[in-house]
Amino acid sequence: MICLHPEVHELWSKGYCAFNYIYTKTSNGNESEVTLQFRWMPQTKKRFGQEMDIHDTGSGSDWQQLIAELNVFHDQGSPPPAPCEGALRHLTKSGEPVLSGHLIHIHMPTDETKRFKEVIDIQWACILFTALSGAAGSPELLSMKSDDKARQ
What we know:
globular
């Protein structure tokens, strides 16, 4: 289990940030250290439910625009999304924002590491999908209602 500061939890639950599994190091037979990487997620145009032609042959395809948005995000050093700027400054000793790529080391019983990795991998995939589809920060796009027009 991960214990998150309430502000971090809120940002994580909206898909603004995620944790990527890096590796597990077993220190002895009973305890291991799991390393995760904190990542700010890109804020892209809302494309939830939109078909995209990766060969860019269809009319209205904005595949190249998505690539351009992701390139800008990476060129800028994977910054926190605008709604998060300044929100987490008090969580670091230096007062600087939490940076993408920050490593987090979690100690846990060795027999829990496999399940923990699986859960982290699932949340990483879900949040990555959320960010790439443009749904980060838009909980209305994550509705599970079958009559929701955003899902049709």
